[in-house]
Amino acid sequence: MLDVQLTSLLEAGTDEAGRGCIAGPVAAAAVILPLKLKIPLLNDSKKLTEKQRYHLRPIIEKNAISFGVAFVYQQKIDKINILNASIHAMHLAINKLKINPQYIIADGNHFSPYKKIPHKCIIKGDSKYQNIAAASILAKTYRDDYMKKIGSDFPEYKWNNNKGYPTQYHRSAIEEFGVTKHHRKSFQLLPNQIKIDFE
Q: Which residues 6+ apart lie within 8 Å of 87 measured at CB?
């Protein structure tokens, strides 16, 4: 069972999804959970099946004191780099909370101060604390929904399956069909970066 949270303060957990993708936005979520809440099955989204993630999402949303989800799209990622875009997405998600947290815990080892609220970065925090795990699930499922939606306009890339990650099939599709407006032009889209037309 994951720990509920790190402190006894009104604490938001935040995490991102899609950082390693070569297409689509990076998504982030922020979640404030009640201090005594225990959610069975809740864990790092990567350790759950798709069915489990979608089962947990409405439970998280129903029980959360507040939650927010935000995207930073590929044009911004190409401009400010994926690390800064991930942190920016987490800030945007925290902005959407209906109540200001007193403390923030962020998954990973990079975060920038937000409105002078104390924060702590926690390596593998999504497998240690419920509020970060909840944020990882919301970020993952909402991003997956978005990739499935835009994937209907670009079926040759099979984003409904790979969600924009650099699978062998996805790279083969780029080699055959070129890039779309949803691809991250600053990423290595093909092995050895075969020259492709970005126009």
A: 110, 111, 112
Do 95 and 75 have their domain in common?
yes
Is position 58 within any domain? yes
Q: Are residues 178 and 85 in the same domain?
A: no
Q: 117 and 182: one domain?
A: no
What are 111's two structure tokens? 């975060």
- Check whether residue 130 and residue 174 sit in a common domain: no
Domain span at 121: 11-150
Q: What are phi and psi of 184, to 5 degrees?
A: -85, 105
**Who's near 149: CB < 8 A, 6+ residues apart?**
none
Of the given ranges (34-48, 121-135, 158-172, 184-198), which has the lowest mean pLDDT? 184-198
CA distance 113 to 122: 15
pLDDT digit string, tens, across residues 105-143: 999 999 999 999 999 999 999 999 999 999 999 999 999
Supply 84's token pair. 């800064």
